[in-house]
Specification:
alpha+beta, Alpha-Beta Plaits, two-stranded antiparallel sheet, 2 helices, 12% helix
Length: 81
């Protein structure tokens, strides 16, 4: 009898808000609802994207693909790092 081991992946979303122009394309494609636009503008007058820490990212990379500014990075935690 074989046993199945479930491995839980720890995915991190890194938002490079200095590059975000607030277009919202990433928000529209995020199936998990992890991304949203801030309610208040930043010092550049832009509503930058933010992530919801209580919502897990499934690493579909749609947000990364859609971002015209390259302001989103997704990476998997390996060995506690």
């Amino acid at each position: 009898m074989s046993k199945t081991k479930t491995i839980k992946r720890k995915i991190h979303v890194k938002l490079l808000t200095q590059y975000c122009k607030g277009c919202g394309l990433c928000v529209n494609v995020c199936e998990q609802g992890k991304l949203n636009l801030e309610a208040a503008p930043n010092e550049r007058g832009v509503l930058p994207v933010s992530d919801q820490p209580d919502i897990a990212c499934n690493a579909c990379l749609k947000c990364v693909t859609m971002c015209p500014e390259g302001a989103i990075e997704i990476y998997e935690e390996k060995n506690g790092k």
